[in-house]
Design a protein that fits this description.
CATH architecture: Roll
Helix content: 25-40%
Largest sheet: 5 strands, antiparallel
Pfam families: 4HBT
Number of domains: 1
InterPro entries: 4-hydroxybenzoyl-CoA_TE, HotDog_dom_sf, Thioestr_dom, Tol-Pal_acyl-CoA_thioesterase, YbgC/YbaW
CATH superfamily: Hotdog Thioesterase
Number of strands: 5
Structural class: alpha+beta
CATH topology: Thiol Ester Dehydrase, Chain A
Shape: elongated
Keywords: Hydrolase
Order of helices and strands: EHHEEEEH
Protein name: Tol-pal system-associated acyl-CoA thioesterase
GO molecular function: fatty acyl-CoA hydrolase activity
Length: 134
């Protein structure tokens, strides 16, 4: 898959009392980028639940915080699949400002049946769309 990029602007609400982005918010930015990546492929998460009976859930996160982001920064958040299983993806995600890496993360996402919360195969239609992106 090619690397997907999503712009994020830092608002006051994203920062702590020192004007630095609160660490957990980087995970929110990464979540938004993955959601927008899905949307760019034509998949809305609410429709995946309704039509396919699936959800995507975070299985694990490994984040490395390298440099701080501050109020009003314009950031780039990338998402790239680095490993694909039958029922999961692993993403490498990078949050950067002007080409400088601020935070790197590896996030494993599981495909689950919405009614049982048990792992299930990623739908073939999604796999086909992702192959077209490569």
């Amino acid at each position: 898959m090619s690397t997907f990029h999503w712009p994020v602007r830092i608002y006051y609400e994203d920062t702590d009392s020192g004007g630095v982005v609160y660490y957990a918010n980087y995970l929110k930015f990464m979540e938004r980028a993955r959601t927008e990546w899905l949307r760019s492929l034509g998949f809305e998460q609410d429709r995946l639940i309704e039509e396919q009976g699936i959800i995507f859930a975070v299985r694990s996160v490994n984040a490395d915080y390298l440099k701080p982001a501050h109020f009003n920064d314009a950031l780039d958040v990338s998402a790239e699949i680095i490993e694909q299983g039958k029922a999961s993806f692993s993403f490498e995600q990078i949050v950067s400002r002007d080409g400088v890496v601020l935070c790197k993360g590896e996030i494993k996402i599981a495909c689950l049946k919405a009614d049982t919360m048990r792992p299930c195969p990623i739908p073939k239609i999604m796999l086909m769309e992702m192959q077209d992106e490569r």
